[in-house]
Amino acid sequence: MGDDPRAMSTSERTMGLGLRRALVTGGAGFLGSAIVRQLLGEGVEVTVASRSAERAQLPAGVRAISLDLADAAALASAAVGMDAIFHVAALAGVWGKREDFYNANVIGTRNVIAAALANGVPRLIHTSSPSVCFDGGDHVNAGNDLPLATRFLCAYAETKAIAEREMLAANGSVSASGTTLSTCALRPHLIVGPGDPHIMPRLIERARQGRLMIIGDGKNEVSVTDVENAAHAHLCAARALGPGAACAGRAYFVGQEQPVLIWEWVASLFEQLGVPAPNRHVSRRTAYFIGAFCEAIWRALPLKGEPPMTRFVAMQMSTSHSYSLEPIRRDLAYSERVTLAELTSRIAEGVIPNPVQI
């Protein structure tokens, strides 16, 4: 029993992670709630701050604060006494007003940094996205030397890039109390798993309506990320962070050890779910021009909702996005807890996982 990490006392687990109290922005969301569960499993006292925190079904013992990240004073108050902040909250999507994305993703991140410095919080882990590096080309087994993009096809990617840059620049800042802030950014790609409210449900709905088509040749290699692995990476970052740590001031890609040929993987998964697999193709060039046309129409009229195709979606779904895990293994001592085969089975079976022990 002594060798079982689940048998450790709360104090031993807390010392192992080095946290007593943590604030999780966006902790009521898909990834945020997985981080919360794993923190609770480590004996950490967790406060969740998000717009819907007080209405969400959060685990027992979690303190919930409903706030807007634009409210700098409320955010600073929520950060009092914290040993770490996990900044997961963001406005995601491929369509919308740039102002809305900028306010949520840039101004919100600035307020989180300010809250950490105002309270002498020593560790700040930021959830970023591989889209900050997306330049329209193929990225196969890309490493941390992949630069930020200089041109963006959607406001989400642009504002997340600004936020990541400012988050990493804040590394080494000293608070009024003399505490040095250490920051790290994680870029999980295509977070999926049981309870996923975004990616798989949308693909399945489009497939059932006969509106899902393969863009390009269908051979693009993509890293997907089980939500429990993405959460685990955040805890690894919290454990590794500190002044002078190898990961301080740096960003890391997160994905499964084994990438997939995304359209073949989706077809296999759909077969298990009894969903018709896409079998119609459209070229990348055609999809791109359809996306540009739809964007123009949606802006000109303007129409509500999201266009059926955008330039960003056309390029994302037809290019390769796979990432090397060597940097995150080396600097954060990360190793995946859910394999690709297990992830596929968990999605197909719809099983809600137990928290993964770090």
Name the features:
Rossmann fold, alpha/beta, 358 residues, disordered N terminus, seven-stranded parallel β-sheet, two-stranded parallel ribbon, 15% strand, 15 strands, globular, 39% helix, disordered C terminus
Would you tell me which CATH topology of the domain at 5-191 and 225-257 and 321-339 applies? Rossmann fold
How would you describe the shape?
globular
Strand content: 15-25%
Mean pLDDT: 91
The CATH class of the domain at 5-191 and 225-257 and 321-339? Alpha Beta
Largest sheet: 7 strands, parallel
The secondary-structure element order is: HEHEEHEHEEHEEHEEEHEEHEHHEHH
Describe what this molecule looks like in 3D.
- This protein is 39% helix and 15% strand.
- Residues 1-15 and 351-358 have low confidence and may be disordered.
- It has a domain at 5-191 and 225-257 and 321-339: Rossmann fold.
- Helix 4 (98-119) runs parallel beside helix 5 (155-169).
- It contains 12 helices and 15 strands.
- It has helices spanning 10-17, 30-41, 72-78, 98-119, 155-169, 199-208, 227-240, 262-273, 284-300, 311-316, 326-332, 340-349; strands spanning 21-25, 45-50, 63-66, 84-87, 123-127, 139-142, 182-188, 191-192, 214-215, 221-222, 225-226, 250-254, 260-261, 281-282, 321-323.
- It has 358 residues and is α/β, with parallel strands linked by helices.
- The two termini are 17 Å apart.
- Strands 3-2-1-4-5-7-12 form a 7-stranded parallel sheet, sandwiched between helices.
